[in-house]
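Progress narrative, Year 2. Work on Thioredoxin reductase (NADPH) from Halopolyspora algeriensis advanced from sequence curation to structure prediction during this period.
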Amino acid sequence: MSYDVVVIGGGAAGLAAGMMLGRSRRRVLVVDAGGPRNAPSEHLHGFLSRDGASPSELLATGRDELSKYGGEFRTAEVTGIEPADGGFIVQADGAEISSRCVLVATGLRDELPDVPGLRQQWGHGVLHCPYCHGYEVADEPIAVLGGDNRPFTMHQAQLVRQWSADVTFFPHQITLSDDERARLAARGVRIVEGKVSQVVAGETGVSGIELDGGETVACSTVFVGPRFIPRHDLLIELGCAQDDNGWVRTDPSGKTAIDGVWAAGNVVDNPAQLINAASAGSTAAIAINHYLLADDIDRAVAEHGATTPA
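Result:
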């Protein structure tokens, strides 16, 4: 089966792109393997008109809107993209789907510190984005746990203080400089040294951080800085150029170095929130439609010339 565009990834970026392409009367298929990054979260925030909705509600609404404009949705895992006949062949669960263009919106995964109890509370009592969840835990005792993403964690320890006066920073495996200590102290952030042995939680959620020595420091929420790992294997295998940090490079519209291939959302932009990812998907969709329009015109001119008498 042939499409104008195959969108790989059915999150905010992919669905926004699919809807815009459908509204542009393009034949579009959105393929998604399931397991969205924000599935553990009960609610999403900061998305105008959808604040407080569940992630599943947002996705269901997006799929309905995609369908409304003639777009198709398929649950499948894409295992490869190959250039073919001026377009691409997308391999999805054994099927081969031909497409003139491809948009990859597969997001990223969060690699958390290896601390017992952390993953189990992820998306509930363990969070990473204060803009997404800080308001809901304002004025509560908050812990910030040092992770492998050092710059993000250090910024987070200062940022979270904006939502609560009761913030405790656990460097864990991070060695703080004198300047960093002074800056945290100036903001009233308490520092507790020592290796963290586990995140303590009960039926009502997180209750504290336990250190190797057995001491437990009470808190109701833990913020942590994950390492953001882009799910960009499909793009790398195609030969898309990468920046110095290993992320796929795109222009402002999401166009990659491979002609006919775009990328949008967290797969190329780790700090993008849902509303930014949706915006990026819409921007990419408009650029793709313009790309296809140019090709449509070239084809029409060629056909017109072939049928016009000399």
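The chain has a mean pLDDT of 95. DSSP finds seven helices and 17 strands in the chain.
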